[in-house]
Amino acid sequence: MGKGGSISESVIKKILLSYTYVAIWIFLSFTVIVYNKYILDKKMYNWPFPISLTMIHMSFCATLAFLLIKVFKFVEPVSMSREMYLKSVVPIGALYSLSLWLSNSAYIYLSVSFIQMLKALMPVAVYSIGVLFKKEGFKSETMANMLSISVGVAIAAYGEARFDSWGVILQLGAVAFEATRLVMIQILLASKGITLNPITSLYYVAPCCLVFLFVPWIFVELPVLRESSSMHFDFVIFGTNSLCAFALNLAVFLLVGKTSALTMNVAGVVKDWLLIAFSWSVIKDTVTPVNLFGYGLAFLGVAYYNHSKLQALKAKEAQKKAQQADEEAGRLLEEREGENVGKRSESQN
Predict the structure, then answer these.
(1) pLDDT tens readout for residues 127-147
(2) How many helices (H) and strands (E) does the chain have?
(3) Could you tell me what percent of the chain has a pLDDT over 70?
(4) What's the CA gap between 25 and 264, in Å, rounded?
(5) Are the C-beta atoms of residues 296 and 54 closer than 8 Å to each other?
(6) Assuming Cys at both sites, which of 95, 194, 212, 229 could form a disulfide with 181, CB separation 3.0 to 4.6 Å?
């Protein structure tokens, strides 16, 4: 087989792998969301303790990551000083713990479908915080796009049959903290050349999250758990739920690492539509025409934003290749000029 055929095969293999990573992430994300809703909802499993559930997840993830790195030596830990850990990982861990706490809390008050609609605001939050921290440039066109997404979500909220103000505040808070975390990863880790694989990420971040969650847990949920009969630990339910959460954490880092954050954003839109359909058909959540119209508008805004990001990445890649070609041409020209000078010197001698 010729060179062209081998390139074609490698491209096909890369595409198939990308779709596989996307499918795994969608399946695990779907499973964790529905499973968390099942545990936390008072009409289902009726265990409405989101901080406790998040702490169980983090304990499980931290333990597995520790065993894989320190005991089984599956991967090598990243070399990181105490100062780097305190200045970079701790703030990210704090934001992650708050994001998980609030997002899990929202399942108690809101339907799965409406939560996915509110999550459409993530690009708005990421862009706004990126502009605030000067990681993104302010563009009127992009801001108009963000406004269209916000209007769509507002219409979806207006048509929500089970609207709960406190639940909306919790979910919007989760979106804000998660968006800030994503920007902080760029500022505190990526800009310093620190890359963490899935297991080392959990090894460093999960214990940090656990510490930050422990303080509110003592004051908010521990007294209630002591007074109720819900203190028992169902190993099957919480064990399988934590395993799904651990697998999802791995899938997130694998998807972004092997493809891109943009691919994850696009896959997230597909997952949201699947969850809305599942919420309506299986869980029997009420999804109104106004809900769908508003989310459809937000969806178009998100799709346009992702398209713009893709075009910008392509333009940047093309510019990079053109620059490399210019440098290569310049280098060859210098070499030829050097050869010509050498030949002239020889002829003169």
Answers:
(1) 999 899 888 888 888 899 999
(2) 13, 0
(3) 90
(4) 9
(5) no
(6) 95
- DSSP output for 70-117: IIS--SPPPP--HHHIIIIIHHHHHHHHHHHHHHHHHHHHS-HHHHHH
Distance CA 60, CA 210 (A): 10
Q: How far apart are CA 314 and CA 260, in angstroms?
A: 13
Token output for 301: 């805004």
HSE (CB half, 13 Å, CA atoms) of 276?
A: 23
Candidates 231, 217, 263; CA nearest to 104 is 217
Average pLDDT over residues 307-313: 79
Specify whether the CB–CB gap between 308 and 145 falls below 8 A. Answer: yes
**How many other C-beta atoms can be found within 10 angstroms of the C-beta atom of residue 175?**
22
What spatial distance separates the first Cα and last Cα of the chain, rounded to whole Å?
52
Note the pLDDT tens digit of each residue in 87-124: 888 999 999 999 999 999 999 999 999 999 999 999 89
| One-letter identity of residue 30 | F
Instruction: Report yes or no: 123 and 182 within 8 Å, Cβ to Cβ.
Output: no
Cα 291 to Cα 276: distance, rounded to the nearest angstrom = 10
Q: Do the Cβ atoms of 284 and 57 come closer than 8 Å?
A: no
Distance CA 312, CA 336 (A): 36
Closest C-alpha to 103, from 39, 37, 157: 37
More confident residue, 267 or 180: 180
